[in-house]
Amino acid sequence: xxxxxxxxxxxxxxxxxxxxxxxxxxxxxxxxxxxxxxxxxxxxxxxxxxxxxxxxxxxxxxxxxxxxxxxxxxxxxxxxxxxxxxxxxxxxxxxxxxxxxxxxxxxxxxxx
Length: 112
Ligand code: HEC
Prior knowledge:
Blueprint: H1 2-24, H2 34-41, H3 43-46, H4 67-76, E1 77-78, E2 81-82, H5 90-102
Antiparallel strand pairs: 1-2
Bound molecules: heme C.
The site of heme C (HEC) has 22 residues, from helix 3, helix 4 and helix 5.
């Protein structure tokens, strides 16, 4: 139940921020690059390949979360990870979530 409410909040928030972002966006501005954003905001704890796991961070390549759940964690934070809903725009959140999803090795047990 709580998860459902959190998800609704994120969706509502993303809607608001998307509205605001279009106002300020340069016409024909480039879409945010998830890999670059990840390098700026997430590498510190998760590492370039998502596997660093500093201070209890999860190995993102092995994460079992759905895209929606990843979006909730990235926007709202969890445990020792802070949320990014105030520092990234909705479009940037989307891009970085896409990047996290793309890090999945896919095959379970594909660890070297
Ligand atoms: C200060 C260190 C830190 C930074 C910076 C950080 N994280 Fe995290 N992250 C964590 C920790 C610690 C956890 C585990 C949280 C918990 O206790 O459940 C986590 C968990 C996650 C999870 C959940 C993984 C799972 O399977 O449970 C995702 C997704 C994630 N982080 C993505 C990101 C993204 C994307 C960024 C950059 C926008 C980011 N993190 C920045 C520390 C960090």
